[in-house]
Design brief:
The chain is mainly α and about 400 residues long. It is built from 15 helices and no strands.
């Protein structure tokens, strides 16, 4: 769809500026505590926005969500640029978190509202390919900007790009997007509110563990690579490798999932266990340039598994609560942001007191713990679906006989 393209400049702007928040805090005289607080402000605001606006979301307001998010990043970039002190960076981080959250929410819900459930994986994959290509481009822009030491002028570029996203979306996205606004109903008998709550709780719990382990394992990865005598260029290459593989994988996720979005996440999670083990081994046994090569190889697998989780995750969440897609997506996205805060906070403590191998193995164990929860949710969903099929068949037979 045309509106997918609107997210490209937005994601370029995000990738070129958001990762620089801690560095910008330091340049304004803040320390590690202030840098951590700025990142926490971003994630906390994003979590709150996901919950609040997910609950309120209706098809008719999704266009406004996207426009508000693009405008929010424009404003955040302007505040970053003109910030005279760290306090203003906190404010800009909060605005950027809000903008990121409602843009992400709007995108997935627009896809769900304008496509049948059977095509959600394909369309989310197409959207994410555009989005992540924007992120990859933004990483390159941010790296070049840092290399040439142009400092805060990057925020002018960021504001301009986010403004372009706003203008393009305002032009091409209708108030009521066409393409099947009443998407097919996914027949799942949840056998009462308690069953629905249990199923959603299992899925959300597995999501929390998965993304907490991701934050735990990846937050200090740049420091880890540098500690193995790596360079900033090799840190950059590690992230570019991962994102490039993700972009290439998105078109294949629909075929990999074969309609079972939860089970394919279990396989992706198992892959991420191997990634964390590889990181631990590179610290314990290989180290040096050999260890960096192992990390690069693991980051390739990371990009592959991330693409699967980034498509199958939201698609599965919306099918668990089809009539309340906005609410469940708000909870799902908020869980990701909150788990990121928890993982980031713990990563420094574990690495400093117990070392990097323990950090990576802890992340691997958390990921491993998420898999049984996913499979339990999958079994509950299958049983519910079978119940609906049997009930529907019985109703058809009764109608025919009468």
């Amino acid at each position: 769809m045309k509106w997918y393209r609107a997210y490209f400049p937005f994601r370029v702007a995000s990738a070129a500026t958001i990762p620089l928040i801690p560095l910008y805090v330091n340049r304004l005289g803040g320390g590690l505590a202030e840098a951590g607080l700025a990142v926490a402000m971003f994630n906390l605001t994003a979590a709150f926005a996901s919950l609040f606006f997910g609950r309120l979301s209706k098809p008719r307001v999704l266009r406004s969500y996207a426009l508000g998010g693009f405008l929010g990043l424009t404003l955040a970039s302007a505040v970053f640029y003109s910030a005279p002190s760290v306090v203003y960076v906190f404010m800009a981080s909060a605005i950027a978190g809000f903008a990121t959250a409602i843009c992400a929410l709007a995108a997935v819900l627009l896809i769900a509202e304008t496509n049948e459930g059977s095509s959600w994986n394909r369309e989310i994959g197409r959207f994410n390919r555009v989005s992540d290509f924007g992120w990859l481009t933004g990483l390159v822009v941010g790296a070049l900007w840092s290399y040439f030491s142009m400092e805060k002028e990057v925020f002018i570029i960021s504001a301009t790009l986010a403004g372009m996203s706003f203008a393009y979306t305002f032009t091409v996205l209708k108030h009521h997007p066409s393409g099947g606004i009443h998407a097919e109903r996914v027949e799942v008998d949840l056998d009462g509110e308690a069953h629905a709550t249990s199923l959603a709780a299992l899925y959300v719990a597995s999501t929390f563990l998965m993304f907490m382990s991701t934050s735990l394992g990846y937050s200090l990865l740049p420091s880890f690579i540098v500690g193995m005598d790596g360079t900033s260029t090799e840190v950059f290459l590690a992230y570019v490798t991962s994102t490039t593989i993700s972009v290439l994988t998105y078109p294949r996720v629909e075929g990999l999932s074969r309609g079972d979005n939860i089970h394919v996440q279990s396989w992706a999670s198992a892959g991420r266990v191997l990634i964390m083990v590889a990181f631990a081994l590179s610290s314990l046994l290989v180290r040096g340039k050999g260890g960096i090569v192992l990390v690069m190889a693991a980051m390739s697998l990371s990009g592959f598994t991330w693409a699967i989780l980034n498509v199958a995750g939201p698609a599965a969440a919306m099918k668990l609560a089809h009539e309340k897609k906005g609410k469940i997506m708000g909870v799902y996205n908020a869980t990701i942001f909150l788990s990121s805060i928890a993982g980031s906070a713990l990563s420094g403590i574990i690495a400093e007191s117990l070392g990097y191998p323990t950090l990576f193995l802890t992340a691997a164990l958390l990921t491993l713990a998420s898999i049984p929860l996913l499979e339990r949710a999958r079994l509950m969903l299958k049983r519910s679906t079978r119940t609906v099929t049997a009930t529907t068949t019985q109703k058809c037979a009764t109608t025919t006989s009468s």
